[in-house]
């Protein structure tokens, strides 16, 4: 049986993003052309969906389809004012998400990460969303570790993606994870997109010049990034910024959206992920290079935030070398 993907479309959905899962997953096939996924779209009550544009879409299925899914994709919906203010889901959306089976994989596209956060599914996990709303996500849901630089985050069962075309990257990543590089690359060719994009969304982020550079913590953040292999304490950071620990923490949180030590742990983890993806360094050396000290601490962070061991992460994410030209 093909893997069943159910896409949830809510009022305000972005039409381009809504079409991404079906476009990508329907191109993942066996050599004989048999599709490896079936894609169904549902809405609350099976009602027509008001899109972000000037039209509505007719949807054939209601939220009961979520009960049958192997993977649920929540198509991009910008967070409502109520969600931003209260951090709570509308009752009908919460009831729909409750229909999802405990082992079902759940994916958010772009700003639908706010829905997963409000449902408590991102607590203690690394996540991303569109770079313009990463700070808002971190402030509204402080238990979520928000990474504004990446195209997507894979926590095992729960996955989040950045804005726009990053949904394509995440869907191709799932095909690659489920069926290997060859199937994913073939699907990408049929969609006429890159099978793997280097870098993240950091290149698209607007970086205004701080009004008062003397009060910014940016120089200290760069100082810490240049020394991830070294032990760094809150006092070390504050001392470098010529501030008290209390003042530094307040200003740091205002600029970054998280505490200094949480941010530092996130940067160490991000660097470890990069090394696992792009090098063959032993896990022990990566743990030292990223400031975790030993492989046990590194494994603990990977299980806590990504739900897998460093070696499992390497197997799932290391990009293979391109085939030599024949």
Describe the structure.
The protein contains 14 helices and ten strands. With 326 residues, the chain is α/β, with parallel strands linked by helices. Helix 6 packs antiparallel against helix 7 and helix 8 (218-225) packs across helix 9 (234-241). The model is unreliable at 206-213 and 321-326 (pLDDT under 50).
Tell me the layout of helices and strands.
Layout: E1 3-8, H1 15-25, E2 37-42, E3 49-50, E4 56-57, E5 71-74, H2 81-86, H3 91-97, E6 105-108, H4 113-118, E7 126-127, H5 134-140, E8 145-146, E9 152-154, E10 158-161, H6 166-179, H7 181-191, H8 218-225, H9 234-241, H10 245-256, H11 260-278, H12 283-289, H13 295-305, H14 310-317
Parallel strand pairs: 1-2, 1-5, 5-6, 6-10, 7-8
Antiparallel strand pairs: 3-4, 9-10
Helix pairs in contact: 1-6, 6-7, 8-9, 9-10
Briefly, what is this?
Pfam families: DJ-1_PfpI (PF01965), HTH_18 (PF12833). This protein has 14 helices and ten strands.
Notable characteristics:
single chain; 326 residues; alpha/beta; 6-stranded mixed β-sheet; two-stranded antiparallel ribbon; 10 strands; 41% helix; 11% strand; disordered C terminus; HTH_AraC; transcription; Homeodomain-like_sf; Class_I_gatase-like; transcription regulation
The number of E-state strands comes to 10
Terminus-to-terminus distance? 36 Å
What's the alpha carbon Rg, rounded to whole Å?
A: 21 Å
* Spans where pLDDT lies below 50 across 5 or more residues: 206-213, 321-326
Tell me the fraction of residues in β-strands, as a range.
5-15%
Keywords: Transcription, Transcription regulation
Protein name: GlxA family transcriptional regulator
InterPro entries: Class_I_gatase-like, DJ-1/PfpI, Homeodomain-like_sf, HTH_AraC, INH-QAR
Domain HTH araC/xylS-type: 218-316
């Amino acid at each position: 049986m093909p893997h069943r993907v159910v896409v949830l479309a809510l009022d305000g959905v972005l039409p381009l993003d809504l079409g991404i899962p079906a476009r990508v997953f329907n191109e993942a096939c066996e050599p004989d052309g048999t599709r490896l996924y079936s894609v169904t779209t549902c809405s609350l009550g099976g009602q027509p969906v008001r899109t972000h544009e000037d039209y509505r879409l007719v949807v054939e299925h209601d939220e009961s389809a979520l009960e049958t899914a192997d993977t649920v994709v929540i198509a991009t919906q910008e967070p409502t004012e109520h969600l931003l203010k209260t951090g709570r889901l509308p009752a009908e959306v919460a009831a729909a998400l409750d229909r999802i089976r405990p082992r079902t994989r759940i994916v958010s596209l772009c700003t639908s990460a706010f829905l997963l956060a409000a449902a408590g599914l991102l607590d203690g996990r690394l996540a991303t969303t569109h770079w313009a709303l990463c700070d808002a996500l971190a402030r509204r849901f402080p238990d979520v570790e928000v990474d504004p630089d990446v195209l997507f985050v894979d926590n095992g069962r729960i996955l989040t993606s950045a804005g726009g075309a990053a949904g394509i990257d995440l869907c191709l990543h799932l095909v690659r994870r489920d069926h290997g590089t060859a199937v994913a690359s073939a699907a990408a060719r049929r969609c006429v997109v890159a099978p793997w994009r280097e870098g993240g969304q950091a290149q698209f982020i607007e970086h205004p010049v701080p009004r008062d550079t003397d009060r910014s913590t940016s120089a200290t953040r760069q100082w810490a990034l240049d020394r991830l292999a070294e032990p760094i304490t809150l006092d070390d950071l504050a001392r470098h910024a010529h501030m008290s620990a209390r003042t530094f923490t307040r200003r740091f949180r205002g600029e970054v959206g998280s505490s200094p030590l949480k941010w530092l742990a996130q940067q160490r983890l991000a660097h470890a992920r990069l090394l696992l993806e792009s090098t063959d360094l032993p896990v022990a050396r990566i743990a030292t290079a990223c400031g975790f000290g030993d492989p046990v601490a590194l494994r603990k962070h990977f299980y806590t935030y990504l739900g897998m061991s460093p070696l499992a992460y390497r197997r799932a994410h290391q990009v293979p070398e391109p085939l030599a030209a024949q």
